Amino acid sequence: MPKPKIAIFEFTDCEGCEVELISLKEKILVLEKRVDIVNWRLGQDDNKPGPYDVTIIEGTPITKHEVEMLKKLREESGVLIALGSCASLGGIPGILDKDQRKKWYKKIYGENYKPRGIDALPLTAYVQVDFLIHGCPVNGGELVRILEELLAGKTPKYRGYSVCFECKQAGNDCRLLDKKPCLGPITQGGCQAVCISGGSPCYGCFGLRQEAEIKNLLKVLNKITDKKEIDRYFSMFLNKVNKNG
Amino acid sequence: MDKQFIAKIEGHGTLDIDWKKGSVKLNIHEGERLFEGLLVNRTAEEMHWITPRICGVCPTAHNLASLRAVEDAYDIKVSPTTTLLRDLMNCGQMIQSHALHLFFLSLPDYLGIDRGTELAKKNPKVFMKALSLKDVSDEIVKIVGGRIVHPTRTRIGGFHKVPTKKDLEKLLKKLEKTKKAAQDTVDLVAGIEFPELKVDLQLVALDGDKIIAVSSNNIKGRKESSAKNYKEIIDEELREYSTAKFGKYKGQDMLVGSLARLAVYRNYDDFKYKIDFENPFYNNLAQAIEIDIYHKQAREIVEKLLLLDLKAKIVKPKKDIFFKGIGCIEAPRGGLYHEVHLDKDGIIEEANIITPTVQNLTSIEKSSQALLEQTKNRSQEELERLIIMLVRAYDPCITCSVH
Question: Looking at the predicted complex, does its ipTM rise above 0.90?
């Protein structure tokens, strides 16, 4: 049986999820033996055109060229996977709304600049995506799990629990009980609560979990802090996903 | 756009070579994320959370630059332990980035292979060394920063959490084990015959709070400026074919990064290793030498830390707050400048960021043109390949340059 043809592309982003992929080191070699990476601009010179069995896309399609390429890749790909929060949610670049961008183009680049970017949106704003690997950056273990399931011909499943589950397993004190804002309860698990374990807040980069109780969380957050801060939490990664719940 | 993006560099660029005129343009296509805009109205504590997302290859450098900017604004002097831990993170960041670039992006050019993982078959010994260096540097950043990409443990005034002595002892063992891999990497790269090239550039590096420049043809004449005046010293201009700005040092083409640092600091064995500072291809050798330098520095810092009481002392802002701060650091690819203006509630009113690659873009074009002029008897195809090798030798991070 021929090995599945894999392509990895990145649109506008920090490429940190691909760095996570490379950091898998030996594990990526094992994976590489089972697939044929026919197109990966960051890793190799020898890149072939589609069609591809599996296409993995990192980053948000922010320019017209990227949007066109995304549509073309959708047509050429059996399975299309979003890698990381920029691709799956719009990510950090999505903090700015489309009209806010206009103001900042002028401030940063001057009046005469012709902007290339349109808006920072997730891949799903333009095409149907088969699976979203969330995270800023993605979690290496999750990445291996999902890729292995795909290679075995299975449809990977989303984690059915929230970050809170893994946060408790990690032995962290609950931020909400300590009167610190946190989006853990509405956020999908899989990250091992790495940010909270490090002392940072959870801003929801793993995307909303199924049946996320946003309204209930807002009730708690409103007791802890003001609307401005709540908005900041909900706009860090989720601005283009679900603003008001 | 029909042209292929240059492979094996961070971000999206294409080359536009005018063979008749002998001119080279580096077109930058990366979409604008407008970080200086999206930081406004966020909190001071969110700055070092957001800016690492400018670049997944040097997130720790952005994290540390933002912390310095905010701490400068708040007049915070962090504890010696915090300084040591942050320096250790930076050592890890340098090795992570250089090892990734050397083994996976640049070395394949010199070894005649397509991709870094081909080394596993062709030269398994070198490949294992590459992996061990990547592994130990990832470990440093993870133990201190909390994660390989995008730190979670750092905060204004110190750390949320610090590593345990047990973590550090384990790390020291790993560092001892990989010491030889770092030294062997220098010898491996020193054995490469680099393509010939001679360019007159300003090599620029930060030394404490000073920006130091030396000429590539005379590294002894040092020109010093205060980093506080970075905006006047590094001017940025717009080019219609690029979403990144192009930087210059007081109007002259500049080069920043490993090669510039070695020229400014002269902290390597210049008897053993002959570096041609007029030839940017030698940036690859400089990176290898720096892997060894930062590996040694990491060991020394861990040894010092093991003698200290590792409590995370968080320094709070002073009462006489300046509200404007500048944080600069030598990132793997060169001087990185973050500036922040805060209001009395700690909300960001203004932010400015100059990245290393912005400072290198102008000279990448100049060096490419020099390469065209100085290389004789080669086909267009060979010349184009050579120029791409040169672009890679600079280790540009286009992702950073368009932030």
Answer: yes
